[in-house]
Design brief:
Blueprint: H1 4-9, E1 17-22, E2 25-29, E3 35-45, E4 48-59, H2 68-76, E5 79-80, H3 82-97, H4 102-118, H5 121-131, H6 136-154, H7 164-178, H8 180-199, H9 228-239, H10 245-257, H11 261-265, E6 272-273, E7 278-281, E8 292-295, H12 298-311, H13 331-340, H14 350-361, H15 366-372, H16 380-385, H17 391-410
Parallel strand pairs: 4-5
Antiparallel strand pairs: 1-2, 2-3, 3-4, 6-7, 7-8
Helix pairs in contact: 5-6, 5-8, 6-7, 6-8, 7-8, 9-17, 10-12, 15-17
Organism: Crenobacter intestini
Family: Belongs to the 'phage' integrase family.
Keywords: DNA integration, DNA recombination, DNA-binding
C-alpha cells in the first residue's frame, strides 16, 4: 500500500508510470508532473467481462489549517489526498458490485446537476405566473414586482438551492426599499412559486415557510376619502410637480374618470372615441372581466387630444419611459406621491373612494356611481335586471364632477358641490 510520502515525493519520468495502492487503486505519474488517481475494475457486459479504468481525480496536498468547507471545495474540484482517494475507490467498488460503471454514474450525476441548475427560480416563477387565472395586466404587474424585487436577488439561482436565508434577504430588502405591502406580496408570490416547484419535484421544501413571520404583519389600511380642501391641494401639488408629463396626465385622467389606476396607466389609443367622448375598456383589462364604457368629460377629452400629439404613434397613451412598447406602471403614481409628500395620506386607489363619497354627497343616484366605478351589483336579482349603462346620466354626472375638481383646485372653500337628486 502507498504512503503519503511516496505520493508526495514521486518524481516524473520520461513515460507515465503507476504507483499501486491496492484493490484497483493506483496513482499515475505523468511526464508533466501531474499525478492522477485511477481505479481499475472489471465489469460484466453481457457474456463478456471487460476491464475499465475510472479517473477519480488529481492527487492533492492539502494546505495546513484547511477547514472543512475548503476541503469540500477542493474535493468538488476532484483533487484528493491518499485517504480521500481510497474513500472514492470504496464508493466506486460499491457501484461495480451493483453492475454500474462509476464513470457512467458520474456522467449521470453531472447531467442531473446541470438540469437542476437550469431550473432557476425565475423560470419556475414565470411558469407559475402563466398558470394563474388572472387578467394579463394583473400578471404583468406581478411580473414587474418580481423583476424589481425578487429576481435581482434569487432569479438566477436553482430553485432547489434557495434557502430561508435567501428568502429573508429578499423580504428585508423589499420592506426597507418598497414597504411592507410590497414585501408581503413578494412573500406570497415566492411561496406560490415554491409550492409549484415542490409539486413538480423540482424542490423539496418551501423555504418561505420558516421565515414567514420574520417581518411585521402587513395590515391593510384603507385610505379615507379626501376632504374638498385636500382634493384641491393634491391637484395643485400634482400640477406643480416637475416630473414626467405622462405621469401627471395619467393621474389627472384617473381623477376625471374614477377608473382604477391600472386601467388608466395601461390604456390604449384604440379604446377611445374622442369625438364621441367615450372610452371603452375591453373585458380582459377589467378586474371583473366585463367590458366597461366610460363617458369622458370635456376636460378629459382636452388632455387626451393634447396627449395624442405626444404619444399617438404608440399603442399606449402613457408608454413606459424606457420600453416604449409597454405601458407605464402604477408605481409611477406612488413615486410621484412620495416626492410630493402625499404617500402616507393618499394612495392612487383612494381616488375612487373619494369620488364615490363626494358624488353621493352631490346627490347622484347610487346606480350611476356604482356603474361608473364598474362595481358589481351584490344583489343577484337586481344584477340580472339592472344592466343599464346609464350613459347619459353618468355623462352629466362626470361633467359636473370634472367641473367641481377645477373649482376645488382653485382653492375656493366657499364653493360647495351642487345636489342633483338625480334618478
Amino acid at each position: 500500500m502507498l504512503t503519503d510520502t511516496q505520493c508526495r515525493t514521486a518524481k516524473p519520468k520520461d513515460k507515465p508510470y503507476k504507483l499501486t495502492d491496492g484493490k484497483g487503486l493506483y496513482l499515475e505519474v505523468k511526464p508533466s508532473g501531474v499525478k492522477t488517481w485511477r481505479y481499475r475494475f472489471e465489469l460484466r457486459e453481457g457474456e463478456a467481462i471487460k476491464e475499465s479504468t475510472f479517473a477519480i481525480g488529481e492527487y492533492a496536498i492539502p494546505p495546513k489549517g484547511e477547514d472543512q468547507e475548503s476541503a469540500q471545495q477542493r474535493r468538488n474540484g476532484r483533487r484528493f489526498t491518499l485517504a480521500e482517494a481510497r474513500e472514492e475507490r470504496t464508493k466506486a467498488r460499491a457501484l461495480v458490485v451493483q453492475g454500474i460503471n462509476p464513470a457512467h454514474q458520474r456522467q449521470l450525476e453531472r447531467i442531473k446537476r446541470e438540469q437542476e441548475n437550469a431550473i432557476t427560480f425565475d423560470a419556475v416563477a414565470k411558469e407559475w405566473l402563466a398558470l394563474r387565472d388572472w387578467t394579463e395586466h394583473t400578471k404583468a404587474r406581478r411580473l414587474n414586482m418580481l423583476e424589481r424585487v425578487v429576481f435581482p436577488k434569487i432569479g438566477v439561482l436553482s430553485v432547489k438551492s434557495i434557502t430561508p436565508a435567501h428568502v429573508l434577504d429578499v423580504l428585508k430588502t423589499a420592506a426597507e426599499r418598497n414597504g411592507l405591502t410590497v414585501a408581503a406580496e413578494a412573500k406570497r408570490t415566492m411561496s406560490g412559486v415554491f409550492e409549484l416547484a415542490v409539486a413538480t419535484l423540482r424542490a423539496e421544501t418551501d423555504p418561505v415557510y420558516p421565515v414567514r413571520k420574520a417581518l411585521p404583519a402587513n395590515k391593510t389600511q384603507h385610505k379615507r376619502p379626501l376632504s374638498i380642501e385636500e382634493i384641491g391641494q393634491l391637484l395643485r401639488d400634482v400640477d406643480e410637480h416637475g416630473g414626467r408629463h405622462e405621469t401627471v396626465t395619467a393621474f389627472r385622467l384617473m381623477w376625471l374618470t374614477l377608473c382604477r389606476p391600472s386601467e388608466v396607466v395601461e390604456a390604449q389609443w384604440n379604446e377611445f372615441d374622442l369625438d364621441a367622448a367615450i372610452w371603452r375598456i375591453p373585458a380582459e383589462r377589467m378586474k371583473k372581466r366585463k367590458a366597461h364604457t366610460i363617458p369622458l368629460p370635456t376636460q378629459a377629452v382636452q388632455i387626451l387630444r393634447a396627449q395624442q400629439g405626444l404619444t399617438g404613434r404608440f399603442a399606449h397613451l402613457f408608454p413606459h419611459r424606457d420600453y416604449r412598447t409597454r405601458p407605464m406602471v402604477v408605481e409611477s403614481f406612488r413615486q410621484m406621491l412620495k416626492v410630493l409628500g402625499w404617500s402616507g395620506r393618499f394612495s392612487p386607489h383612494a381616488t375612487r373612494t373619494t369620488g364615490s363619497t363626494r358624488l353621493n354627497e352631490m346627490g347622484f343616484t347610487s346606480d350611476w356611481i356604482e356603474r361608473q366605478l364598474a362595481h358589481a351589483e351584490p344583489n343577484a336579482v337586481r344584477r340580472t335586471y339592472n344592466q343599464a349603462e346609464h350613459l347619459d346620466g353618468r355623462a352629466m354626472m362626470m361633467q359636473q364632477w370634472a367641473d367641481m375638481l377645477d373649482i376645488w383646485k382653485v382653492g375656493d372653500g366657499n364653493v360647495l358641490p351642487l345636489r342633483k337628486n338625480a334618478s
